[in-house]
Description:
This protein has 11 helices and 13 strands. By secondary structure, it is an alpha/beta fold. 41% of the residues are buried. The site of adenosine-5'-triphosphate has 10 residues, from α1. Residues 2-228 form the ABC transporter domain.
Amino acid sequence: MIQATDLTKVYGRHRAVDQVSFTARPGRVTGFLGPNGAGKSTTMRMICGLTLPTSGSATVLGQSFRDLPNPGRHVGVLLDASAQHKGRTGRETLRLACGLMGLPPGRVDEVLDLVSLTPKEAAGRTGTYSLGMRQRLGIALALLGEPEVLILDEPVNGLDPTGIRWMRDLLRSYADDGGTVLLSSHLLREVEAVADDLVIMGQGRVLAQGSTEELLAVPGTEFTSLDDTRLATALENAGYDVSRTDAGLTTSAGSEEVGRAALQAAVVLVRLQPSTSTGLEGLFFGTTAQTGREEIAA
Ligand SMILES: Nc1ncnc2c1ncn2[C@@H]1O[C@H](COP(=O)(O)OP(=O)(O)OP(=O)(O)O)[C@@H](O)[C@H]1O
């Protein structure tokens, strides 16, 4: 469990993170989303005790990160995949971390296998690694101590499609086994595919949070008819909102009300169905439109 309570970070006159509160629960993947500069990394760094909050607090497994004894055994952290010593090999990096955490050296081969780094790759210096290989090593380090909580900042950056699928399966089974995952990413569709809960940030604040299902559910009805203008007017006159989408018209009215309005207006309905989700992309761009940042790739 991760609990952030009113976390705030002010740099000079800039409120990088402004009263951010959320809970990431065990058994669930919590997706942490927001455009560049929204404050995701700063929030994660405060949770991990690497950046001191201006105000507010965060706990991991009920304690502040800094108070956790042997934190690597409880919390696996990947904040910057490039942070490793470039002159060391992947295997040396893991062996060193094993020693620090008091783990048997055999654990190195287990995690190398888990993240699919070959013995040859593990023998190479991390300075020569591709971004994808660095991410895999970062994940190996995070998983090394078999922690109950994972905090991962952009872990799929640099991974190829197979790697992205692998990461999704890994996080899913980790959460299904009772682990807590906090995952930030710009890859919206990936987050949509794996996250049970979402926290969406913009300009340092939480703009929306809740279960993915709940946040993506769009109430209302989609329809097409032989006279959309006439039917839309009938629905608007009855007090419902109507908007045009690529697929036809969407209204806040339920199916039955649309059917009745079509009957009264003598319009033939061609298609009538509950609104399908606009997807995370729609929610994301909708909730962060005010920030004016649109460079997030799907
Ligand atoms: N050490 C620092 N000193 C001053 N400003 C900082 C510092 N670290 C972050 N910021 C600012 O805080 C804001 C939030 O940055 P942060 O890196 O947390 O955002 P982010 O959501 O992780 O963005 P990205 O997706 O681009 O990584 C930005 O405006 C950034 O410039």
